[in-house]
Structure formats: structure tokens, C-alpha cells
Design a protein that fits this description.
Among the domains are: 2-50, no CATH class; 78-281, no CATH class; 539-669, no CATH class. It is 2% helix and 49% strand. The strands form twelve sheets. The protein has a 27-stranded mixed beta sheet that branches. The protein has a 15-stranded parallel beta sheet that branches. This is GLUG domain-containing protein.
Length: 670
């Protein structure tokens, strides 16, 4: 056989031998020959491709389904669609009609390539629990790709055919595959569901990933179908997902580059735009939800990407580079990315632009139970009837030292709560039942978060267990509200380099950490801010009052100081310089007056040192003044200035500077 071709891709037609070993030349297949230059391909060819089944019409598809359901698993076989298929008038039974708990039943284990063809007018209703409803029923170690169910392409999207629907009255249903089970590696790639899914636990692409080992990979898939979760009193919680309903048993499930465009409504407990529930390790990467996701159940977790990532000791989960732009609504808990995210999960580089409304609502997570959030942002309104947070609604118990929120943005849109708590980043911080001491929060002050009328953290819940949060860096705006109850074990730890903005005044913890605990005042728990009682951010102006000689004249600009008490350090341990520039001109001796705008009666620990310059020395006097008057006292070095007595320091003309001292129970000028 000889093939001559010019440069480029060329298609060569061969006959094929099907999966029954029968030679079939009436349905040729095309094989691509890539010629990089004009060439001649010659040699001996038998022109037969084995283990291939081509399906071109409805009856052939029905025959294939019947063959699988009769026990042929098609392992090591390739099935290809070579035409669009309309199943009008056909009674469909899912390919691989086997219970999800029966690995010995009829299961598809081969490769199915739809070649982007569509299957329309397909319907199936399943009344029995644990039996499948979908195009494929039960698969193991299968490869399914390039398949469109229930609609046709129009522009950039797909149009529903008006008839295709998978229904289950007691269990799950999905457009492409209902059950993935067993130990093999299953891959669902570039598949699109447009059919309506109406079930107790529905999903657009895959109903359940039940692999006990191996891997389940769902990549490049899309859902355009309406997903409706039926109400059911089944114990253990239920799930609805735009792409995957539930990931169970398998710690190696990946969902990537998938999109949901269909309206999702759940009347059950875990509802997500991409994944409903994962109770073991999984990864959800580069996925997008564009449509509304809602649930009316009295207790549910609803998220734009995932409903619930459940805690599990055997696996970890990651949600990365995912976005939600659909509206998220729940009667109970909802988040722009996740309804509830437990300690096994890390959420990185995710973004929400869809409005979230629930009892407990968060821009990224409705409930974060010890999980980790990093570089996530919200720019949508967050509405809660109880708790609302621009990033997290309820940062909940079992936080532990591993839990953190880093560099996340709560945005500038409304964070509304008609209940008791709202926060720009966190609605409420709840009780920690874990033995680990704290979680930590890294605040990015460069984000465009609006703290004008809202604190960083809305509240800390009551409880006898310890609730500790470490502010690692950035500025915490306001202190969390302490509602009625017991708050005896609550603490906030400000690490060195962090800041607290309280009553429009900023306190910096530049040299050491500071810990704030709680105290009871008149029967009500409140934060113990005694270390900040003297932290007045009023200005202190330094000015020349008169001249006592002719040698050196000095001028100085107005300087603003922050007064701060930090316990546990002596002057020698932590001394930090703050320079006040004094310019000499003509006079030798000068008197200086320092006026503080507050009327504090505390003592100020101040040291003024002079750096000698050439020429005759001068002897400037320093006064401290407030509403109680001014007095003087000479001292040559370290001085304590109090209102009622004031000290004068003798020094030399030249430049003078202030040293900040960290001395217990005294105000520090910074």
C-alpha cells in the first residue's frame, strides 16, 4: 500500500474489525497521517483496526447498552460515536445497569469516545435505591470523553432539547455517569450535560465517585442542565452538584477545568455549583460556576463551587483557582466558594463575585471549621439573617494551630447581618474544642477592604472552651463583640509587626507581641484594654518659649506621638529611637515646652539626649504641660515627667532625639 501526501494533516480511510472480530468495511474510520513534507508512505498494511465498535444510529446504541447490561464489560475495547443520535421513542436503560454496591454486576470498563456528537431525547426514571440513572449507569476503570447529552450547541453554549431527563425517586442521577466504583482509574473528559436532572441526589456529569482506590478524574466537563434536588428524609445528609454529586471513599478524585452553567436547586443538605459533598480527600482546580445555586432545607451547606468538604483523617482536599459569579442562596449556611469547609481542606486563589444570602453567609466560606484560606477574594454583597463575613461567616470550632486565613480580601461591598454579628473578613469566631491553642490570621493591609463601618471580626461566640486567635501581621480593625455568655478563655494575640485600629486610632506592636484577654465588668464580658487606656493618639507639640543666651537658637516642627503601654519589658530591653530635629541658629540656652492634647495624669517616661557639637554648650530646659499646670525639676539624664511635677534635662546644643521605652505600667511615647 502506498500513500502520497503533501505537507499537513491528511485522513486515510481504513476498514476495521469490530469488538466481535467481524471485519466491517461499510463504516470506515479516518486515521490522521501527518506529513511534514511531501513524501511517500509505502509498505504492507492489513488495513484493519481491532477491538473497535462504531455506533452510528439509535438501534446500534441500544444494542451496545444491552450488550453491556448482559455482562460484556468492553474492557480493552474502544467505542466511538460517528453520528448524532436521537433516541425518540426508545426505552433507555443506563449502560452498566448495576447497583453501586455490586462490583460483580454489569459494569462498563472500556473506552467510549463520543467525538463531540450529541445524544438527544433520552429519558430514564429509576424507582429503586442504589440503582443508577444516567447515560452510563455504573463504570469502573473506564474512559469516557467528548460526549454531549440532551442538547445541541448554539453559539458559545448549548440549547436543551426539551425532552432529555434523568430522574431518580430514591437515589442519585447524573447526565453522563451515575456511579464510578471499584479500584480502577476512571477518567471523564470533555463531556457536556444539557439534560434535566431531577433526583434525590442529582449531578450534571457524575453522580457518585465511589472508587475504593485508583483515581477518578473529571476534567473539562460542563453542565448546562437544570439540576433539581428532591426533598427526602434520608438520614446521613444528601448532595447536589453541577458536575459531581458526591466523592466518597476515594482520596484521589480530581475535578478540574469544569464549568456549571445550569440552575441548581437543592432541597437537601449539601449543594455545590461544582461538587455537592466530598467526605474524603479530593482536588477541585480551575473550576467555575456561572449560575445560581440555592437550597431551601432548614439545615444545609450551599456553595458556588462545593457544598461541603467534610472532615476526614485519611485524606486532604484542595480547592484552587476557582471562581463563582452565580447568586448563592440558602436558608442556613452559604459561601461564594464553599458552604462548609473542614480542617482537611485548603482553599487557594479563589474568587467570588456572586451575591450570597443565608442565615450564616460568607464571601468565600459560610462555615470554615479549621480549614485554610489563602489569597482568596470576595467583591460581592454578603447578606445574613444571623452571621455574615466578607470572607468567612463562621470560623468554627476545632480550629487548632493549623487553621489560618491568609491575605484574603473581604471587599468593599455591603456585609449585612440582621442578626448579631458581621465582619469584613470574619462574621464570628467560634469555640475551639481542639487541644491546639489557636488559629492565625494574616491581614493584607494593601487590599481594598472597607472597614469604615465594620470590624475585621464581628464577634467571638460564648463558651467555656478556649478561643484564641493570633494576628500574625496587618491591622485588625476593632475588637470582636462578646455576646452574652461565658468568654473567660478568649484571647487575641498580636504578633510583632501587627496593629490594632480601635476608635479610629492605630496601635502598633512593633517590638514584641501583645495578648488581650477578657474580663467581666458589671456582669458582662468585655475585652481587657487596660494596657491601651493611656493610648491616646492626641498630638504633642514641641515649641521654643524663650531664649536665655545668644549662642544657639533652636527650632522644631510639631510632632505627633502615639502613647502605648506594653507590659513586661524594661527600658534597657527595648529602646527605639524616634528623632526630633532641632536646628541651631543664634541663642545659647533655650527652654522647650511640650503640650499633650489629652489630659492624662499618667507618667510619661522620656529621655532626651544631646549630641554634642563644636562650640560652647547650651542648657535647654524641657517642660511638660497640661491642664494641671507646669512645674520644673532639673535632672541631667533619664527623667520621669508627671503632671504636678515636671523635669528639666540639661544637655548640649545640637540634635536631640526621643527614646521610646517599654516599661511596665508607664505610657510610652512613640
Amino acid at each position: 500500500m502506498k500513500i502520497e501526501c503533501a505537507p499537513g494533516n491528511h485522513y486515510v480511510t481504513f476498514a476495521y474489525k469490530d469488538t466481535e472480530g467481524i471485519l466491517n468495511a461499510s463504516k470506515p474510520i479516518n486515521v490522521t497521517v501527518n506529513c511534514g513534507r511531501s513524501t511517500t508512505i509505502s509498505g504492507s498494511f492489513d488495513c484493519v483496526v481491532s477491538n473497535l465498535l462504531l455506533i452510528s444510529n439509535a438501534q446500534e446504541l441500544m444494542d451496545f447498552a444491552s450488550s453491556v447490561n448482559s455482562g460484556k464489560d468492553y474492557k480493552e475495547n474502544i467505542i466511538m460515536l460517528i453520528a448524532d443520535i436521537d433516541l425518540t421513542g426508545k426505552t433507555w436503560v443506563p449502560i452498566g445497569y448495576s447497583s453501586r454496591s455490586n462490583t460483580d454486576g454489569p459494569i462498563f470498563r472500556g473506552t467510549f469516545d463520543g467525538q463531540n456528537h450529541t445524544i438527544t431525547n433520552i429519558k430514564y426514571t429509576e424507582p429503586r435505591a442504589e440503582m443508577p440513572s444516567g447515560f452510563f449507569g455504573t463504570v469502573e476503570g473506564a474512559k469516557i470523553s467528548n460526549l454531549v447529552i440532551g442538547g445541541t450547541k448554539q453559539g458559545d453554549g448549548y440549547v436543551y432539547d426539551g425532552e432529555s431527563k434523568f430522574t431518580h425517586t430514591l437515589d442519585s442521577a447524573a447526565g453522563i455517569v451515575d456511579f464510578v466504583i471499584g479500584t480502577g482509574e476512571t477518567k471523564i473528559e470533555n463531556c457536556i450535560n444539557v439534560a434535566s436532572i431531577d433526583a434525590f441526589e442529582p449531578a450534571g456529569v457524575v453522580g457518585r465517585s465511589y472508587n475504593t482506590s485508583g483515581k477518578t478524574e473529571i476534567t473539562g466537563c460542563k453542565n448546562y442542565g437544570i439540576i433539581n434536588g428532591k426533598e427526602n428524609e434520608k438520614a446521613g445528609g444528601t448532595k447536589t452538584g453541577g458536575i459531581l454529586g458526591i466523592n466518597y471513599k476515594n482520596n484521589n478524585t480530581e475535578v478540574s477545568y469544569c464549568e456549571n452553567h445550569g440552575i441548581i436547586t437543592g432541597n437537601n443538605s449539601n449543594v455545590g455549583g461544582i461538587v455537592g459533598l466530598s467526605n474524603v480527600g479530593c482536588s477541585i482546580v480551575d473550576c467555575k460556576n456561572y449560575s445560581s445555586v440555592s437550597c431551601t432545607s432548614s439545615y444545609a451547606y450551599v456553595g458556588g463551587i462545593v457544598g461541603y468538604i467534610q472532615s476526614n483523617d485519611t485524606g486532604t482536599a484542595i480547592i484552587k483557582n476557582c471562581t463563582n459569579s452565580g447568586e448563592i442562596n440558602s436558608s442556613s449556611h452559604a459561601g461564594g466558594i464553599g458552604g462548609r469547609i473542614d480542617m482537611v481542606a485548603t482553599v487557594i486563589n479563589c474568587n467570588n463575585t456572586g451575591e450570597v444570602t443565608a442565615s450564616t453567609s460568607g464571601g468565600i466560606a459560610g462555615v470554615l471549621q479549621g480549614g485554610k484560606l489563602e489569597n482568596c477574594s470576595n467583591s460581592a454583597s454578603i447578606n445574613g439573617t444571623n452571621i455574615s463575613g466578607g470572607v468567612v461567616g463562621n470560623w468554627s470550632y476545632n480550629i487548632g494551630s493549623a487553621g489560618y486565613i491568609k491575605n484574603c480580601n473581604g471587599g468593599s461591598e455591603n456585609v449585612i447581618s440582621t442578626g448579631y454579628s458581621k465582619g469584613r473578613l470574619i462574621g464570628t469566631l467560634a469555640t475551639n474544642y481542639n487541644s491546639n491553642p489557636y488559629a492565625y490570621l494574616v491581614i493584607n493591609d494593601n487590599n481594598n477592604d472597607d472597614f469604615t463601618n465594620i470590624n475585621t471580626i464581628g464577634s467571638m461566640t460564648d463558651g467555656t472552651q478556649k478561643v484564641s486567635l493570633e494576628i500574625t501581621s496587618g491591622t485588625l480593625h476593632g475588637l470582636p463583640i462578646l455576646p452574652s455568655g461565658n468568654h473567660s478563655s478568649h484571647t487575641l494575640i498580636f504578633k510583632s509587626g501587627s496593629q490594632l485600629n480601635l476608635d479610629n486610632k492605630t496601635y502598633s506592636f512593633n517590638t514584641s507581641e501583645a495578648t488581650f484577654s477578657t474580663k467581666k465588668v458589671n456582669g458582662q464580658w468585655t475585652w481587657d484594654t487596660s494596657s491601651l487606656e493611656s493610648n491616646k493618639s492626641g498630638s504633642a507639640s514641641i515649641s521654643k518659649t524663650n531664649y536665655l543666651g545668644t549662642y544657639g537658637e533652636f527650632t522644631v516642627n510639631e510632632v505627633e506621638f502615639l502613647f502605648q503601654v506594653i507590659d513586661g519589658y524594661s527600658f534597657a530591653d527595648n529602646a527605639t529611637e524616634m528623632t526630633i530635629t532641632v536646628t541651631e541658629t543664634e541663642s545659647a540656652n533655650a527652654e522647650w515646652e511640650v503640650t499633650f492634647s489629652d489630659n492624662s495624669t499618667k507618667y510619661y517616661k522620656i529621655e532626651i539626649a544631646g549630641l554634642a557639637t563644636s562650640g560652647a554648650p547650651g542648657w535647654p530646659n524641657l517642660y511638660i504641660k497640661n491642664a494641671t499646670g507646669v512645674t520644673r525639676k532639673n535632672n541631667a539624664s533619664l527623667n520621669w515627667f508627671g503632671f504636678g511635677s515636671s523635669d528639666t534635662i540639661s544637655g548640649y546644643d545640637g540634635r536631640y532625639y526621643l527614646l521610646r521605652a517599654l516599661q511596665p505600667n508607664y505610657i510610652v511615647i512613640e
